[in-house]
Amino acid sequence: MAPPKIDAASPAQVLNGERQMPRDSFLELLPPSLLSTLYVVGRGPEARITPTRLFPKRAFLPLGPNDTTAFIILVGCVVQERFPFTAKIARFRGAGQFVGEGKLLDPRSSVTTRCLSDTWVLPCSVRRMNALFGQYPEARHALLCSLEARNRSDEEIYSTVSRTPLERVSALLLHLARITGTTDGDGHTIITGPRQKDLAEALVLGQSTIESAVAKLRQRGVIDSRYRTLVVIDMDQLEHLVSPSPAHRPRAQP
Known about the structure:
The protein is of the alpha+beta class. The protein has nine helices and eleven strands. It has helices at 11-15, 26-29, 35-41, 126-135, 137-158, 165-180, 196-203, 207-219, 235-242; strands at 53-55, 69-75, 78-82, 89-93, 98-99, 112-115, 119-125, 182-183, 189-192, 223-226, 229-232. Strands 1-7-2-5 form a four-stranded antiparallel beta sheet. Strands 8-9-11-10 form a four-stranded antiparallel beta sheet. Helix 6 crosses helix 8. The longest helix is centred in the middle third of the chain and has 22 residues, at 137-158.
């Protein structure tokens, strides 16, 4: 049997404005007329084409204290990890999102950023990006709105410890489906990259708790499991489990 067709965006489609970006992401909020400016920000003066880069699964984006580049994720999924007081805080980032934003304020800023799937990015010189935001206030406004929306989403997904594990896992899977999901030939949403271990670390739950919640979702026909992927079969039911979900919060204004 032939494998199902996966409806995955290409980097060129994203930068040409041919693909809808996840709600409230930087690329979704950026005015379409400014998409072309990213070509200039992302390339050196000697480059003839936009240097989009592919980082393979398990690779790290160069966002250390000595790096001078931030990134816009075009396709794929990464996890960002911080270690305050030796504890790990993990957050997932996906298509349309700007990562390494701390460098816009402090070039020495750093965050461990690991690719959970093959990930296409647009590298952005911090110096050129700051110049762009100075020239186009609407681009700066789009970034600020996307970061505020991301902060609110993080609070709803990772900080709602009073909710049941099933609700918390459902909220995270819904979020991942929206920011990293691709569509197969049956209209199902494929989540590639994060493993159950990654979900457990992000939600600060035991892996057995994650496995139990995933099993319940599978029994209800909400999701299915394939090799190293989770498949959302019934998005409406998943949204219902999460309700009130991020889909119902006030939309950020660009």
